[in-house]
Amino acid sequence: QVQLVESGGGLVQPGGSLVLSCAASGSIFSIHSMAWYRQALGKQRELVATISGGTTNYKDSVEGRFTISIDNAKNTVYLQMNSLKPEDTAAYFCNAMVYISRSNIRYSYWGQGTQVTVSS
After folding, report:
1. β partners of residue 96
2. Rounded-to-integer distance, Cα 98 and Cα 109, Å
């Protein structure tokens, strides 16, 4: 079993910054990719940023403001969020695509979510 534990959410004023972290632990052989999703109240979950093998991708609306990074030694992914806007308010979820053995089968795991609220 694999567990993802997120931290770093909170209340921040518009224009402020937050850093989210997500630590993966358990039966991990290797990590294929990690990602951050978010879900605003009453809306569908959407992909915010991904990182795999050093390659990153971002949702258009966060490009240039958010940075995803990974510490492979700690199996931890980070999301640096700058210039936050009220529309960034959402529950943020970490996702990991993990190999639990030498097979080519990847498994998807989710964190419990952390709330980010951008408001004055």
Report:
1. 34, 109
2. 8
Residue type, 50: T
Question: Is residue 18 within 8 Å of 8, Cβ to Cβ?
Answer: yes
**CA distance linking residue 17 with residue 35, whole number of Å:** 19
**What mean pLDDT comes out for the span 70-91?**
97
pLDDT digits (tens, 9 = 90+) for 87-109: 999 999 999 999 988 888 999 99
63's CB contacts (< 8 A; 6+ apart) are none
- Confirm if 84 and 18 have CB atoms less than 8 A apart: yes
Q: Residue 80 forms beta bridges with which residues?
A: 19, 67
From first CA to last CA, the distance across the chain in angstroms is 40
- Per-residue pLDDT for 54 more than 90? no
The beta strand positions in the chain, using DSSP E, are: 2-7, 10-12, 18-26, 30-39, 46-52, 55-58, 66-71, 76-81, 90-99, 106-110, 114-118
